[in-house]
Every structure is written in structure tokens, then in C-alpha cells.
Amino acid sequence: MSSSSSSVLEMEIFQYIDAHQNDFIEDLKEWVAVESDSVQPDLRKEVIRMMALAADRLSALGAAVNSVNLGSHQLPDGKDLQLPPVILGELGKDPQNPTVCFYGHVDVQPAKKEDGWKTDPYTLTEINGNLYGRGATDNKGPVLAWINAVETFRALKLAMPVNFKFVIEGMEEAGSLGLEKLLEDKQCFFSDVDYIVISDNLWLSNRKPALTYGSRGNACFCVEVECGSKDLHSGTFGGIIHEPLTDLIALLDSLVDPTGRIQIPGIYDSVAALTGEERKLYESIEFDLEEHKNNGGVKKFLYGTKEEILLHLWRYPSLSIHGIEGAFHEPGIKTVIPAKVIGKFSIRQVPHMDLSVVKQQVVEHLEGVFSKRNSPNKLKVSMPLGAKPWLADVNGPLYKAARRAIKRVFGEDPDFIRDGSTIPVARMFQTITQKSVMMFPIGAADDGEHSQNEKISRHNYIEGTKVFAAFFLEISKLHRQLRQTSNTETNN
User: Fold this and answer.
1) I need a surface site. Which of 9, 44, 82, 198 has the fewest CB within 10 A?
2) Given 10, 35, 46, 107, which residue is catalytic?
């Protein structure tokens, strides 16, 4: 296809999306109205209803849809509760086209008007160009934008530039229960998949588009210090025993220095050196330090430049102390020496850091500090949760195609960003399927996912639909070029 005919095709697609934007917003309104909160057991029927709506929408596209039963899970009270199905959808089997699998979720975080919402969280409400409602940006809006982009080709009777597969779940906000096993059991579903796209995060900026190519992992630790079987009176035992809380505070204080550098020996040994090419990616990123301070309500950062802030958010490990269990924390004074206290902290690790090695380094460090205190108390260190980091190749065809699509729709190149938090689903798909994975957000930084007054702007929702449609054309074009190049090299 020539560039001129491609531009005409894009124009036809974009005009259709503009003309039908109110229809697309009505679709989102219908989905937002379903209180598909996967966290609260009494709303599970709503999640299952939402999955049926999503399955019907894919069927209307002409997709073959399989709603896979995941069985049930046990609640803390011992009761069993049905898990919502995972939708596997398939549309198109043209061997000349690449196959792109899209992952999204249609469950949401809890929301109540009395929590501080300006509008009913389950009634999509447009105010000053913003569409407010729970799930608008996380993740019903992006899922619908992708479906709307596919629907546009169908409505215009255009040949599909790619084959589509869909994985849509209803338990993401509750830990994606059952998803990992399903992906392992359904390897054949992914056998012909070339690329995987996830749109379940946000831009770094309120204005500038972004593509996400990495996230940190998370190793969560508990350090427990125990003195005896019961709490003690500080007037009777204070000053004559090794107090568990004093030991614990010393242990926690040994973990990180005032500059934020982790003090555990060897913890930085596996962190890859920063290359000049990678550092350049940070220079062009749109990031307002003052805005970030204001968003967090903090007065000062540990670092003074945009580059250093982003490197320490995304590229280097960090250690955060989260709390102490067992210590008195109610209002007032209670002169007690707790018998057992548990400190909780986590290390956000980066690529090349091995979880088992990190655990060993933490245990050895804390045991070493503890032994120097000559305390008779019992020390126990555990790592109840460990999630690995994820990193993608920004020079691969997925990111090249998405970059071109963004330039076409938004008129500028995207920021290439990482996420300082953990995105288990990206790592899960990449590890299990061994396919290229890309995070392709369409929501802005101020969308407020998980928060009160969650929204997606009309602009981002509609332009996001266009950028997905443009991406279909670009990845098809690139894939064919790569195959032609490969065939030429083989023949030579």
C-alpha cells in the first residue's frame, strides 16, 4: 500500500471515529454502569454480568468467543465463591497478517459516592470534556477503545490489517486469580500470536502520550522480633531487658541511609550499567518535578533533576518501610513493651536482580546487624511476596509501530517510560507465552485510577481509539516488511 493510499485510508477511519464518538461514549456509559467490583464478594454477580457484556460485544464483532470457567476460590471465612470466567476471543485467521493479542480487564476497584466522588461513580458523567466514572480509565475505557477501533474496520467494510485475539479478565483488581494457570493451560491459544498489547496504565504526563517498556519488581519482607509470650509493663521491665521494638527499629534503620541508598551489601551488584543511549531516553521525557511534588503533597525530593528522579523511580532499586505490626498505635499513651513486633518493608527490584539472591542478601544483612546487638530475642525474616521486574525491547516492531501511530494521531513522538511500580501481568504474559509484550496506555497522568473521581477525557478516549486503529495499520505494514526481508535473506 502506498503512503498516499494509506493516508486516505487513515483519514476515512478517523472521520468515522469522530462521527461516532457519542456512540462510543454511550457504550462506555453502559459498561461503567455495571458495578463490577471484584474485591467485594457480594458484587461477584455484577462482575460475571460484566464479563457476559464483554463477551457479547466481541461476538457482535464476529469474533469466536470462549468464556473459560476458572472454578471458585476460597474466601477468608472459608466460603467458596465462583470466579468470573476469562474471555478468550479470536477474529481473523489470515496467514498473511500478523496476529495481535490484546489483554484487558473489566473489573474495577470499589467506589462509593460518599467516599468523596463529585458524581455517582457508576454513572458516566461528562464535565468539561472529562468522562467521570469508575473504570473509565482503568480499564473499561481502553478495552472499549480497542474494540471500537476493530469495529471501525468492520463498519467501513475494510479488510482487517491484523488477526485479533483477546484475553479479557474480571479479577485483575483482586490479583488476577486463576489467570496465570489459564495462560499456562492455553498455550495453544498463543501459538500463532506474534505480539501482545496491554493498555492498563497511564501516561507520565497529563498531555504527552507515552509507551511503557518496563516496570520494577517487588520483594516484600517481614522482619519479626520476639521477646516472650506476653506484653510487659514498662515500669516493671523497662531498662532491664532487650526490648523487641528497640531491636526492630535498629534493624529497620540499618536498611537505607538518608540519601535513599540501600545499605544491604551486594544489593546493587546485578543492576545493569546505564548506557548513553538509554540516558538519552530520559532527556526528552516530559516530566514536571513541581507538579509531581504537588500531586504527592511533598516539599522536597532526594534529587534535583528530572533525569535523576526518573532514574531512581524506574531504573534503580528502592527500599521503603511500610509499617510495624504489634506496636501500640492507637491515640493516647499505653506504657507497654510489646512481646512481638513485625516490621514490614519492600524492595522494588530492577532487571537482572535475582529474587532468591535479594532474599539471601536481606536475611544475611539483618542477621548480621542483629547479632551485633547481642540480643536474646528471636529474629525471623521472611519474604511472603516476590514479583519480578519486566523489560521490553523499545527497538522491536511493536514499539516502532506504536510510535508511528502516536506520531500520526497526536502529532508528536511519545515518551518512552518505565513504571516504578510492579505490573505482574506484563511479566506473566512475556514469561509464559515467550512473545513480545508492549504496554500501550491511552489515559493521562491525572486520570485518578483507583481514586475518587476517576476519569478519562473525551479527547483521550476518542484519540486513543484512533491511535489503536493506526497501530493496526502500522504493525501490519512493519510485519510484512520484516517477513519480506527475512525471505530475501533466506533466498540469498
Assistant:
1) 82
2) 107
